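Quick illustration, no need to memorize.
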Amino acid sequence: MDAQRFRGDIQGLRAVAVLAVLGFHAGLPFMSGGFVGVDVFFVISGFLITGLIDREIGRTGRLSLTRFWARRARRLLPATAVVLGAVAAITLIVLPVTRWPAIAWDIATSALYVVNWRLADESVNYLASDDAPSPVQHFWSLAVEEQFYVVWPLLILVLLWLQRRFRLSITRVLMGGIAVIGIPSLIWSIYLTETSPGPAYFVSTTRLWELAVGAALAIVAHRLPRLPVAWAHALGVGGLAAIAVAVLTYDSTTPFPGTAALLPTLGAAAVIAAGTVGRRTMADLVLDTPVMRDIGTLSYSLYLWHWPLLIAAAVMWGGDDGTLPVTTGVMVVGFSVVPAWLTYRLVEAPIHHAKLLVRLPGWAAVLGLGCTAIGVAAALVVSQSVPAPPSYAVTSQAQGAAVLDEDPDEDPDGEVVDSVEFITPTALEAPDDVARLDGELCISDIEGTELESCTFGPAGADTTVAIVGDSKMHQWLTAFQRIAEERGWRIVTYLKSGCPMISGDVRFEDDVNKDCTQYNESRYEALRDDDSIDYVLTSQVASQSYLGPDASDAEENDAMVDDLVGVWEGLEEAGRQVVVMLDNPNPSLDVMECVAEHPDELSECTFSRADREQIGGGAAQLPALERADGVSAVDLRDYICPRDTCPAVIGNVLVYRRGSHLTATYVSTLTPRLDEALMEVMR
């Protein structure tokens, strides 16, 4: 076995990886694919960890799990504990109180290294779809690595037993084990990226193959003849070029990980392979330099610190949409070097190399448990710091839209005020103040194609109403249930988050929502075929179809209008009366968080109706209504924003919860207005 030697090129490759991530998170436009730096880290980790294991087996013929996990604990957990404690402090000092409950869970799952599974679940969770980024969101990649560090040595012990039992080649056995992990993981990554991209990004099973690539390289590197220097030059330069191409050309529309992850992963492997020649290569001119080695040394602490500081900066200096100017982002990332350096010098390096902990791995295990406990304790502190909601009961004073008269734009109760006696729901309660039908959420998540439905009311009702659309239609369920109970209607729902009812492709963020396209085919067929349905009530937040990456906003808006007209008229021809609920004004800020921060300055939480009325579904609904024959509309926008400036609170009721969605409490107060408007248009 070769003795372990310092690899300056690998330190430099760590620098490349962390700089890519930092540039991406800072918002540098030419580093739109900087997220692939994480994939480079995975390859490095797989290579180094497997190399350590391989050398120990070569020296001793066995693998000590205690020593292996003790090394990991010394190396990773102390800095993690420091940063999680700092994140808890940042949360309590800087971040809006509305985020505290979710962040407490994020910190706890980060301390236990399972946060990637929590993020995977939230990526398709309707109730979490408008949540702000977590200050520990970046811990997902550390969780993947830690889970690998648990599974991989256990598998190696099994492989060692098989090798001895059947007298097999150790190299073949280890490579076979790597294949058992890596090949299914790659196949699964390609499949899940295509079918469920949100979870695919975070779950460990789609990333293990990247660590396996590094592991395979560690097993074969010193067993192969030395590479010719010319090959090493080509591999090093080619590998760096592959990583650079991914960093510069990938963006949020790139399906990832899947096959796209092959480029940076194999590029990183090529760079590492080039270094096996034992002499400087052309890649070392970039990688093995004092500056790059120093950055590589700080890479772990830099990765830990930069993201929570960016999140805090976005709250303090970001725009209404929470984004930082690029220059500010770069400055914050640059400042993160200070706590990263302090953490490395005072915590990470001293504990990692502490002779006592090296000699007594049991104490390192105790240290690891202590560091984990610190993270969990930090989460508990945040959780217990969440203020209890006011004890008052909702009374007739909390009238919401009921305080507005027939001409809300002239009603003084629609004016903006700075303070009110009380607000319900509170900003802390608002995230859970979500519409339900008979206690059920009744909306499908963003991903998935299965046609799910809820029904409410008597099966033999004279009137059946289909509630159809995305989350902006879902928000009205509370009011529809009350109307249905009063009028004896039967309600059937076909609601899917991020999926308006159209015939073409839907744009979701910067790409096509393929699941929505397939879902809409089934939804439209169900609405046309069910002759018991009398009315189809629909709304949406989307205003653009998807025509491809080169299409303009205007072209995609026109396509959405055409799609809406076609679907609405098709349903009318099938005997369904279509009624369109016009989308409410979409705020330019997070109203809920603003109210939490400014309960006595509510005027800080307003926005211009004129500026925001064309942001959302109305930009497509209004022109479509002008063209669609026989289609009616319900317009309650004046009862949501009575004046030119939209208030955050009306009649002691908080109007908006997360994003542009109305609180269920406020929607409930709109029930009489909705009932009246429906009676005017229903034939």
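The radius of gyration is 28 Å.
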